[in-house]
Amino acid sequence: MTNKPLDRSEILDAFRDERKIYHPKTVIDGVEVLNLNRFLDDRGLFVELFRTKATHPGSEPLAKFFEDLDIAQVNYSVVDAKSTIKGLHFHLKQYDIWYCPPGSKMKVVLWDLRSKSPTSDSIQVLVIGGERDGLLKIPPGVAHGFRPLCDNCALIYFVTQPFDPDAPDEFRVPWDHPRIVSLWDVENA
Description:
It contains one helix and twelve strands; from the N terminus they run βββαβββββββββ. The protein is mainly β. The chain has a single domain (24-165), classed as Jelly Rolls, CATH 2.60.120. The strands form three sheets. A five-stranded antiparallel β-sheet has the order 1-9-6-11-4, covered by helices on one side. A five-stranded antiparallel β-sheet has the order 8-7-10-5-12, with no helix packed on it. It is globular.
C-alpha cells in the first residue's frame, strides 16, 4: 500500500469537478454572539446568563454584552411540535437576547430588514445550543426565527421592551418567503 495521492483523472467523470465549497459566514451588523463559560462538575453544571457589572476577572464580557440594554422581561419557551418553524418576525424597538439551554439545539435564521444598515438585506444562519453555551443578540429591524433541531426545544430570551398586547412591537415575515424558505432545511453535507 502506498501513500500516493490520486490524480483527478483517476476519479469517475461524474465526480471529478464536484469540489465542496465553503462559503464565508455572513454576520449581520449589530448581531452578536457571546460564548459563555459552562462550569461542570460531578453534581451538574452552571452557566451565568446575565450580569449588570463586572465584579471579578472573567466577568467583563458578560457585563459588556448587556451594557446599554435595559432588560424589561425574561421569557421561557418550549417548542414540542416536530418540524415547527417559529417566527419569522422583527421588532422596531426591541432587542432580543436568546439563550438555548443545555439539551436544546436550534437553527436560527436572521434577515436584516433595515434599509440603512451596512448589511441591509443580508441573511445570517447559525446553530445555537447543543454543547455550546452562548447568547445571541438580535437588534431591532432584524427578522428572526428558528427551527428546533431536537425534541422539546427550549429557549430563554431577554427582551428590552415589555410585551403589550394592545400595541405589540412585533411584525411578521412569512416563514416561507422565497428568499429564506430553503434555509430552514437541515443540510446534508
